[in-house]
Amino acid sequence: MYDPGNTEIKVPESAEPQIPSSAFLSVHGEKNMTANNPVLLSFGGNLGDVEAAFDSALRELEKNGFHSSARSRVFRSPAMGCEPGAPEFRNRSVLGIWKNSPEELLDLIQRLEVEAGRPADHPHWVSRPLDIDILLMGTLMLNTPRLTIPHPEISKRDFVIFPSAEIAPDLMVPGLGMTFGELAFRRKNSSGSGC
After folding, report:
1. How far is CA 55 from the centre of its chain?
2. How do residues 32-63 score in pLDDT, each as one tens digit?
């Protein structure tokens, strides 16, 4: 079970989804059968009131067309690759439906990150109040200068794998041939924690 007092990521005892897989197809009574759904996002941050930033960003996403269906508990993880003495990160995965393009979702996410206090032009590995990554969009495989889906680091990041496995253990990662539940099992049973 996850221990909030420990900065290491702990694997939840139970990785039961909060919603059944069939619910991915129905949000607010609508059928959505596009290949780009469900959408899985990863929220992270380590400056300020991170959980409040998560909640505010999710509200804004929902106001702008993202329909959330499940969100994980908040996990804690060490700051990897950041400046010396950086505070630990909080991480959460959010599952939902998005009817517009991946680029429109990215534009919205980047606007919300800036509004939360992250500079638009920022170094890659620094502390930040809010960071939202698009992990996957259904079966979509995309590689452009702006966006790669699925996120290329999914299988290396415990802070992505375990929160995602908590809410969507049966969700397959395109190109990997593994579900988040399988990835979590593999990471839990491997010698390295990885990030």
Report:
1. 14
2. 435 679 999 999 999 999 999 999 999 999 99
Catalytic residue (one of 71, 76, 131, 157): 131
Examine the residue annotation and report whether 131 is marked as an active-site residue of this protein.
yes
118 is known as an active-site residue: yes
Q: Peptide bond preceding 123: is omega within 30 degrees of 0, i.e. cis?
A: no
Domain boundaries, the chain: 22-152
Taking only the tens place, the pLDDT of each residue in 83-106 is 778 899 999 999 999 999 999 999
Catalytic residue among 133, 157, 158, 187: 133
Residue 157 appears among annotated catalytic residues: no
pLDDT at 97: 96
- The structure tokens listed for 47 are 């400056």
Regarding beta strands 30-31 and 26-27, do their DSSP bridges make them parallel or antiparallel, or are they unpaired? antiparallel
Catalytic residue list contains 90: no
Return the CATH fold of 22-152: Alpha-Beta Plaits (3.30.70)
Catalytic entry in 71, 118, 157, 187: 118
